[in-house]
Q: What sequence folds into this?
């Protein structure tokens, strides 16, 4: 087994999240995520690699909204990986990423069933990028055809580009060189991304003595790489 | 000496002395096929004649079913062309009618193997005339199940990636995946049961070859592999069938266990239940035996097989059905009570949906079909001896078992740990493909019944040779003596 070099980690500070959904838009733009029609959304086929789950608490008029951005948790012990019969969803042991290989996927959709976070999306139809969306497709990201699963990649194309750039310039990869689209866009800085194995990184520092941190559905033992931070009263869910 | 004068212990049994004994013998003869021997040439005729009889209504049904199958083919083509979006699947309900159909079709196939292999091994004699009609359900049920899995795939043209085949990229399928086990198990079972039914068919194909002309003669000549019926051939045949029977029983049990693991191995609430393996097998046998009874009643009526399929066969199958209904209820109760007692929040919601939510009418219908109705009716000999009533019960059981699979697949999937992602499922194109799958099974069965003798003549003759009457005191009892 390859020794892991990095552990890409994201921190979502729920206390800072305003639910503006800028991350959702940024993700769509960066990753060529298909924009499905309104009718398809009604059918339950909305496709957003990162989504803002909105929960309400309290009785009217003292209603409070809680926002919970959910993206692929890049579980260390991912339930989606063992169930794929075609090895289309695999773990990258080098950097602890959960990868989806689109051209290996045959569309059994088992991974989607077994994902407790429901962050895997199936392409029910071929994507339809209407003008002018087709003019801004990201050339670094495959456009997925009908019949395959897709999900958040932690912007693996940005990670690769940064790695190659660092290699070409002959210096080790710096912390600030890898920024996923959602993190880049978040206006309140609720999203933080970095390598947990690097003790100098922002994520490592944020997580070290933090009593606000938790991971989603921890009782399932999936060991997600996405940490959530929450204060006392902003409790959303376990 | 003409054929009719051949001396043989089966056809020329010594007459019983005493009037009451003769009366008893007559009574037993009416009840039991194996005690009511016919000359082999009569029986050959009885088994072959229905194959040539095709009434106009037969062809009307064939054309109608072909139309439905064509509709399914077009729908499938549209689905391949446009994508799975034309079905009602969504997120989180990624599995819908196709997987329900797969589980259901494999389920109805289970009775065939059970009757022809397990009852053969257990030397239960009344299985003899039913075995092939039941095995044929296995054959076409599995075909439809395999097709359902293919319909389910997002990119069906890459289905062979499920198979471990040597390739230039040196990529293997993922042996950790229950779906991979499932695909292999179904393929194994399909291959095994096809060979098993073929092996049992050999002597009858040779018999049909000797009694037909034209295309049928040519077909049966090829299919019967030059069977002549020598002593050596029969000995080999018996050994092969014995080996196959013992081998295919564990395959039968493993297949539906593995199908259940598709669900039980996951972490989806409602699916991750350790009891699913045996529970699915009992469910499969339950729906399978009910399906066999329906088919038996239909072919008995339409192909005039009253001599072969008698009350004793329906009675035996119905008693078996009653036991299976109890067993199914026991497993269902166990599968219900543990999560209920556990009190997992998601399962509480699911049970609420079943008990008093939108699914309640269907859930109570399922309990009525699978438990209340069979238990309330099948204990009665009057119901068991009334074919129409029995068939009605069996049809209700089919509905109940289909609903049960429907609850497991798209209903449970709608509820997961994060309530934001809950969903409901409205099947769309899947309905057309389901109808087409059912039509395909019936169509294949109808055509098969006109090409292959559905009554295993050699098995019945063998049974009649070994079956006799034994006198104990003043009573006559059927007794079996198999020379070894």
A:
């Amino acid at each position: 087994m390859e020794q892991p070099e990095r552990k890409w980690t994201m921190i979502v500070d729920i206390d800072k999240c305003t639910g503006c959904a800028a991350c959702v838009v940024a993700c769509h733009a960066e990753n060529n995520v298909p924009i499905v029609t309104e009718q398809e959304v009604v059918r339950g086929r909305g496709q957003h690699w990162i989504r803002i789950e909105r929960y309400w608490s309290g009785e009217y008029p003292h209603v409070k909204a809680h926002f919970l951005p959910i993206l692929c948790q890049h579980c260390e012990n991912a339930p989606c990986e063992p169930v794929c019969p075609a090895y289309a969803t695999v773990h990258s042991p080098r950097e602890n990423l959960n990868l989806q290989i689109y051209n290996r996927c045959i569309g059994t959709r088992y991974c989607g069933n077994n994902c407790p976070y429901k962050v895997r999306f199936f392409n029910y139809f071929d994507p339809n990028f209407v003008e002018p969306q087709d003019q801004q497709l990201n050339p670094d990201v495959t456009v997925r055809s009908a019949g395959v699963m897709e999900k958040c990649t932690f912007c693996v194309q940005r990670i690769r580009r940064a790695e190659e750039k660092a290699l070409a310039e002959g210096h080790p990869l710096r912390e600030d060189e890898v920024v996923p689209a959602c993190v880049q866009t978040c206006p309140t800085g609720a999203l933080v991304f970095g390598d947990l194995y690097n003790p100098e990184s922002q994520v490592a520092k944020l997580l070290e003595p933090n009593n606000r941190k938790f991971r989603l559905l921890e009782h399932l033992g999936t060991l997600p790489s996405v940490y959530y931070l929450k204060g006392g009263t902003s409790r959303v869910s376990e | 000496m003409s054929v009719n004068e051949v001396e043989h212990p089966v056809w020329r049994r010594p007459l019983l002395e005493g009037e009451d004994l003769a009366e008893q013998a007559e009574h037993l003869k009416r009840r039991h096929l194996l005690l009511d021997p016919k000359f082999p040439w009569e029986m050959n005729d009885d088994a072959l004649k229905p194959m040539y009889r095709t009434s106009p209504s037969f062809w009307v049904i064939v054309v109608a079913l072909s139309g439905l199958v064509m509709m399914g083919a077009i729908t499938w083509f549209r689905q391949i062309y446009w994508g799975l979006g034309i079905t009602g699947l969504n997120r989180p309900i990624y599995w819908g009618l196709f997987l329900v159909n797969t589980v259901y079709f494999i389920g109805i196939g289970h009775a065939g193997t059970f009757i022809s292999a397990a009852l053969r091994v257990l030397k239960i004699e009344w299985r003899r005339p039913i075995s092939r009609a039941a095995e044929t359900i296995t054959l076409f049920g599995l075909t439809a199940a395999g097709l359902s899995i293919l319909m389910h795939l997002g990119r069906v043209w890459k289905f062979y990636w499920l198979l471990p085949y040597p390739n230039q990229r040196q990529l293997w399928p993922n042996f950790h995946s229950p779906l991979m086990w499932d695909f292999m198990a179904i393929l194994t079972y399909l291959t095994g049961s096809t060979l098993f039914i073929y092996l049992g068919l050999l002597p009858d194909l040779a018999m049909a070859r000797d009694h037909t002309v034209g295309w049928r003669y040519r077909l049966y000549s090829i299919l019967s592999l030059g069977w002549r019926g020598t002593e050596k051939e029969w000995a080999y045949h018996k050994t092969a069938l014995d080996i196959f029977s013992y081998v295919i029983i564990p395959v039968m049990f493993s297949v539906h266990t593995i199908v259940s693991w598709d669900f039980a191995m996951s972490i989806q609430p409602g699916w991750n239940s350790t009891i699913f393996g045996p529970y699915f097998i009992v469910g499969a046998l339950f729906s399978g035996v009910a399906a066999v009874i329906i088919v038996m009643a239909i072919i008995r009526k339409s192909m005039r097989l009253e001599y072969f399929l008698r009350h004793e066969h329906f009675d035996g199958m119905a008693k078996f059905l009653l036991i299976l209904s109890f067993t199914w209820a026991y497993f269902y109760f166990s599968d219900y009570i543990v999560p209920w007692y556990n009190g997992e929040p998601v399962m509480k919601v699911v049970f609420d949906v079943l008990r008093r939510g939108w699914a309640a009418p269907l859930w109570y219908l399922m309990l009525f079909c699978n438990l209340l109705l069979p238990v309330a009716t099948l204990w009665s000999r009057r119901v068991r001896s009334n074919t129409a009533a029995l068939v009605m019960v069996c049809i209700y059981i089919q509905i109940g078992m289909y609903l049960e699979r429907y609850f497991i697949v798209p209903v449970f999937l709608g509820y997961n740990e994060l309530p934001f992602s809950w969903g409901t499922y409205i099947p769309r194109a899947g309905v057309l493909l389901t109808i087409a799958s059912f039509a395909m099974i019936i169509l294949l069965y109808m055509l098969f019944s006109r090409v292959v003798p559905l009554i295993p003549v050699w098995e019945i003759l063998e049974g009649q040779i070994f079956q006799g009457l034994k006198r104990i005191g003043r009573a006559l009892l059927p007794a079996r003596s198999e020379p070894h």
Summary: The interface with chain A takes residues 82-85, 88-95, 152-156, 158-159, 161-162, 171-174, 176-180, 183, 262, 265-268, 413, 416-418, 420-421, 423-424 of chain B (CB under 8 Å). The two ends of chain B are 30 Å apart (CA to CA).
